[in-house]
Amino acid sequence: MFKNTRLSAFFAAVMLSVTAMVTLTPATVAAQDSASASASAPAASAAAPAASASAPAEAAAPASAEASAPAPKPSAEKVEVENPFGIKKVWNEGDFVTRSTAIILALMSIGSWYIIVTKLLDQVKIGKQTKETRASFWKSASIAGGTATLTEGSPYRFIAETGLKATEHHDGALLEQIDLSTWVTMSIQRAVDKVNSRLGDGLSFLATVGSTSPFIGLFGTVWGIYNALTAISMSGSAAIEKVAGPVGESLIMTAFGLFVAVPAVLGYNWLLRRNKGAMEEIRSFSADVHSVLVSGAMSTSEAGRAAGAKKG
Asked: Using an 8 Å Cβ cutoff, are 179 and 150 in contact?
């Protein structure tokens, strides 16, 4: 029913996840090299007494003025220092459980972004098809002619074709027991339900990711803190540098879990609201198609019956 570029959406999801992972990496710390400034200050202060002692009295005032003038500050040099506690260390020194947790969260993030991008493309296409239907379908002379003007694979064409088939195949001993209006209503309603189901594909995955990924990240944090406390107890040192690093590494997993959960929850609510708006348009279209089909089929049926009675 829906034709979309799944491959491009997958690559877009991977790129978004990788970009967000890079932003989580701790930034490098800029340190200023002040050693040259501290070394040049004593030299300038030592040169001032020597100049004032050797110069005559007439030049004493200018020399002292020059000595008292502040020395120019050297340009600060930035030195990049890598953070010793970060995602790299968590991955390199982590055990099987830590790495598995990180991989699961990464897969959940890629899957969430893939669904968000894919469903957004579907909704954009449906919006264009809605405008197309308003502009061309209802200006046609018949439902069949209007259906031919719609885009192949669009939900509007699917519903119109389903309604046409329902009016053309209302035969058989069992189906004839059902009223034509009821039969067409049932057929169109099934088509609308199928469209609604296709629009909702993947939203359950977003809801699952949004509700479980924080707990998966918390599990990684608990496991990392357990390993950190075990290592600290074995080393016999409880200094702050021994505690802060491993505990900070463990908290990265909680941040990773929240990073996966927040886009999933926001994407779920956003896509759900957009789906409701699209389904309102589709249901209105299906109701109008049902009315036109039923009225046309009933009038044709009555005309056929009247012609048969006259021949008899």
From this structure: no
